[in-house]
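We include the entry.

. . .
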Amino acid sequence: MVDTTPSEGGVTLAELARSRFTPTTSYGGLWVDGQSYLSAITRGHLIRELASYRLPTRLTAALLEETMGQLALAIPAAKRAVPSVADSVVDAVSARINRLQNSAH
């Protein structure tokens, strides 16, 4: 069973699932630090975007690292919880998380 309890004002897994965004192009619906091309977004873009909301850069970097780590660890449990999700989708999400974890600041 996947823990769906939000922590410290966060959202639950169920809320994320209801609001999922499945792009049909290479461009996202939201710009991230001036970048809309999904494959070009890096950790640096995410950190700068978060910092634009007046969060300290060190905090945004730590939050991003923690979030990416938790997402990577959650993928196997999510796959077990919803086995109907195609392996190709799971692999694509895992690859995106891995790319962001290893991209430049």
Remarks:
- The chain has a mean pLDDT of 79.
- DSSP finds four helices and two strands in the chain.
- Residues 13-102 form one domain.
- The two ends are 34 Å apart (CA to CA).
